[in-house]
TrEMBL record:
<dbReference type="InterPro" id="IPR006311">
    <property type="entry name" value="TAT_signal"/>
</dbReference>
<dbReference type="Pfam" id="PF01547">
    <property type="entry name" value="SBP_bac_1"/>
</dbReference>
<keyword id="KW-0813">Transport</keyword>
<comment type="similarity">
    <text>Belongs to the bacterial solute-binding protein 1 family.</text>
</comment>
<feature type="signal peptide">
    <location>
        <begin position="1"/>
        <end position="25"/>
    </location>
</feature>
<dbReference type="GO" id="GO:0055052">
    <property type="term" value="C:ATP-binding cassette (ABC) transporter complex, substrate-binding subunit-containing"/>
</dbReference>
<protein>
    <submittedName>
        <fullName>ABC transporter substrate-binding protein</fullName>
    </submittedName>
</protein>
<dbReference type="GO" id="GO:1901982">
    <property type="term" value="F:maltose binding"/>
</dbReference>
<dbReference type="InterPro" id="IPR006059">
    <property type="entry name" value="SBP"/>
</dbReference>
<dbReference type="GO" id="GO:0042956">
    <property type="term" value="P:maltodextrin transmembrane transport"/>
</dbReference>
<keyword id="KW-0732">Signal</keyword>
<dbReference type="GO" id="GO:0015768">
    <property type="term" value="P:maltose transport"/>
</dbReference>
Length: 430
């Protein structure tokens, strides 16, 4: 199974991205001589699912999944699914330990940056041809594809938008959101100048996960950090340097706080002290919870401003079935069930997880909220992280250099030179 590469997809406006999920049950690890991704997957047996499955899922998803699975168990009365919730902060280590010990699950929620690593460990089964991927956001399919083979399916997706106080923007004479980089800077300065404004926009000054905001700027500017074939790093380019310099300017020009207090985004947004920030859909409930009744009308969201394109980070969760499962047919039947449009709409109603299937967005439950529609628009040009086995290690090095750029005024060219060297030392895992 193949998908279009990130670089060649830049010319298409109808593409998007989705996240990663999987459900787990105990299974053994294949013999070492069988290591390496399989070229194709066995078909799924016909008939209802039977036997037992253990499903591992992270965070709120793990807590809420039993409710969603009632329909699957009703359709398949001879199957039982045991859900094991995992904390996000320890889930990766639990997975890798289980894979090494030969006790990995049948099917599981897999973090979007873990796919290539797990494939490299020969832990995930390729997606059977009977499971169609053409209705998922193409960017999401790209995120589950390693060496031209798809593993699992995208489940739910998320991307990042610019949140802004509409009432404060109106007072500053701004009635339409900006569409380019220069316009975003101008708007941040204008809102910062309002009576309650302390900073124009909240941005992360480096540290864990800051690459998720910086890398989309590189994509927007026509750059990338990994070659199209996934074998080389490409941090040192004019496009990436320009993107990182643009991000740095918010701190050197005093528009963003280089030392923000942790956990204050919602309060500062509601008070007007910091009337803009970039984040995902979960922040809607967070700011409305702090702002109280009527606050939803005071703020809006808009897609990331563009240089060449309007690009954003694609996250979420994938569903993957693990190699060696003793009940792999039932596991794939569960993946199929969770991939139905109506089930994805039901999941949206339970945990507000944005569907990975494009057809699910046609349901009024999802499409009626104009803010979610803005996220839908951004998904058309959002990209998943690089699907290389070592990305988490490389990303940590990138985060550290971003922090030096934002807090110590390190030249972007020097930062990119350092991370390029460090990344080459780590390798792509290819």
């Amino acid at each position: 199974m193949t998908t279009t590469s990130r670089l060649s997809r830049r010319a298409f406006t109808g593409l998007g991205a989705a996240g990663t999920l999987a459900v787990l049950a105990a299974c053994g690890r294949p013999d070492e001589e069988e290591a390496g991704p399989a070229a194709s997957a066995e078909p799924i047996a016909e008939g209802p699912a039977t036997g037992s499955l253990t499903l591992w899922a992270m965070g709120a998803e793990g807590e809420a999944l039993p409710e969603l699975l009632k329909g699957f168990e009703k359709e398949n009365p001879d199957v039982t699914v045991e859900v094991t919730p995992l904390p996000w902060d320890s889930a990766h280590d639990k997975f890798t330990s289980a894979i090494a010990a030969g006790t990995a699950p049948d099917v599981a929620q897999v973090g979007s940056t873990w796919m290539a690593e797990f494939v490299g460990l020969n832990a995930l089964e390729p997606t059977p041809e009977s499971i169609a991927l053409d209705d998922f956001f193409p960017g999401a399919v790209d995120g589950i594809t390693v060496a031209d083979t798809a593993y699992g399916v995208p489940w739910y997706v998320e991307t990042r938008l610019v949140y802004y106080r509409k009432d404060i923007a109106k007072a500053a004479g701004i009635t339409e959101p900006p569409t380019d980089w220069e316009g975003l800077v101008a708007m941040a300065k204008a809102l910062q100048g309002q009576p309650d404004g302390k900073w124009g926009i909240a941005l992360q000054p480096g540290g864990a996960g800051s690459w998720q905001t910086v890398l989309p700027l590189s994509w927007s500017n026509g750059g990338d950090v990994v070659s199209e074939n996934g074998e080389e790093f490409t941090f040192e380019t004019p496009e990436n340097e320009e993107a990182l310099a643009y991000y740095q300017s918010y701190f050197t020009d005093g528009i963003a706080d280089p030392a923000p207090a942790e956990g204050t985004t919602e309060q500062d947004f509601v008070s007007g002290a910091v009337p803009m920030f970039i984040s995902g859909p979960w922040m809607m409930a967070a700011v409305e919870g702090v702002g109280g009744e009527g606050f939803a009308d005071k703020y809006g969201v808009f897609v990331m401003p563009q240089m060449e394109t309007s690009s954003s980070f694609l996250g979420g969760a994938n569903l993957g079935v693990f190699q060696g499962s003793e009940n792999r047919d039932a596991a794939w039947k569960l993946v199929e069930y969770l991939s139905r449009p109506e089930v994805q709409v039901q999941w949206f109603g339970i945990v507000a997880a944005m569907p990975g299937l494009q057809s699910a967005w046609e349901d009024e439950t999802v499409s009626s909220n104009e803010k979610f529609e803005a996220f839908h628009t951004q998904l058309q040009t959002a990209f998943a992280p690089p699907t290389i086995a070592t990305w988490e290690q490389v990303a940590a090095k990138f985060d550290a250099q971003i922090e030096q750029v934002c807090k110590q005024d390190l030249a972007p060219a020097d930062a990119l030179k350092t991370v390029q060297s460090e990344a080459q030392g780590i390798g792509t895992g290819a």
